[in-house]
Amino acid sequence: MSSDNLVLVLNSGSSSLKFAALDPESGHESLSGIGDALDGPKPSLEWKYRGRRHARQLEPGAGHSAVFSFLVALLQEELPELENRLIAIGHRVVHGGEHFSHSVLIDRKVIDAIKECASLAPLHNPPGLLGIRAALEAFPQLPQVAVFDTAFHQTLPEHAYLYALPYSLYREHRLRRYGMHGSSHRFVSERAAELLGTPLEETNIISAHLGNGASMSAIKGGASIDTSMGLTPLEGLVMGTRGGDVDPGLLMHLGESLGYSLERINQLLNRESGLLGISELSNDCRELERAAAEGHRGAQLALELFCYRLAKYVAAYTVPLRRVSAVVFTGGIGENSSWIRERVLQRLGALGYRADTELNARMRFGAEGAITLADSPIALVIPTNEEWVIARDAAEIVAGRAP
Ligand code: ADP
């Protein structure tokens, strides 16, 4: 199905701004682009329209506003036929705290609530707010919708979202596990139900979103009941530059015995750990696979840690789900790395998983389907599409339907 309508989707990260204009019914993208490395000395801008790629260098320090000004000028001056078809703007917002369990139309109250959540996500919410303010100014006639990464995980039960810390920290400061990548987990779990031919309400999915950031979710009947990221995106799996779970005592040791400042610890945990930290080579899975094949010990070790942690989480999520309909791999690594998928399934051999080597090798570059043998529990590869989730929610809200 397709329509004439388009939704402009904006995804502001701490150093990037991604945009796309897409049909909320078919998911077809008319325009897409990214302003990248916006906090570095060489910010860049790339966009694609009608299959043609364009690129330009930006001035150092140009920031999010330069990308946004470019996008507005592109739409208003060069592509008015697209601008005329816009029915809404959908914004990805990382942290909605406990305020939002689904997407909402943005008004003053919503903006205030997003601001309030910024203390929980100081790196992530401020650029999101920047995008919202700029879009409100440039397109005052268009409804704007916020879609939260945390919203999908608001169905977690207390025993899954609470830290076993003094309860007053939750009561007074709302310190708890929130989870991220909600739009992706939601998208692939819905698609998995379609591929399995089972009503969503009857499926139990374990989804693994493996990009630069990585998280897992246990999804029962379409509702998230556990997830690996916590108050911040640092908890859980091994990621590109984040190490996931660590003993909090280690952080105190770094401060007290090695003299690390909080800022230094923050840098270490967010930017210097994970695949990069262990391999001492790269955070890029492709590069690590190449190096590992050539015998690079650090790369081999980093990939092994990544797969081991992932398999442990899959096994853990069989506890709340009991019966698992499918394990789903998604994100740049999940969608493309047959090596990682095979290793994880090998480690899950105790639960009966067996990869179909041929099918597994075929699943890359946007292919979707099963990668396990007929007598194995099912594992699927499903390319994620967070932009489409955002566009669909925005269109539903504009049409007056709850998402
Ligand atoms: P982001 O979280 O930034 O959106 P992506 O979902 O694009 O990240 O995932 C990036 C990761 O996917 C990188 O580690 C990259 O190496 C990995 N990746 C992409 N293509 C392949 C491939 N063919 N084989 C292995 N890993 C891949």
CATH fold name of the largest domain, please? Answer: Nucleotidyltransferase, domain 5
Number of strands: 14
Major sheet description? 8 strands, mixed
**Helical stretch tally:** 16
Looking at the overall shape, the CATH architecture of the largest domain is 2-Layer Sandwich
Percent of residues in beta strands? 15-25%
Q: Compute the separation of the termini in Å.
A: 18 Å
CATH superfamily of the largest domain: ATPase, nucleotide binding domain
CA gyration radius, whole angstroms: 21 Å
Overall 3D form: globular
- The arrangement of helices and strands along the chain is EEEEEHHEEHHEHHHEEEHHHHHEHHHEEH
Helix content: 40-55%
Bound small-molecule species: adenosine-5'-diphosphate
Low-confidence sequence ranges:
none
Q: In terms of structural class, how would the helical and strand content be classed?
A: alpha/beta
Mean pLDDT: 94
Order of strands across the main sheet: 5-4-3-2-1-6-8-7
Work out the count of structural domains: 2
CATH class of the largest domain: Alpha Beta
Pathway: Metabolic intermediate biosynthesis; acetyl-CoA biosynthesis; acetyl-CoA from acetate: step 1/2
Protein name: Acetate kinase
Function: Catalyzes the formation of acetyl phosphate from acetate and ATP. Can also catalyze the reverse reaction.
Main location: cytoplasm
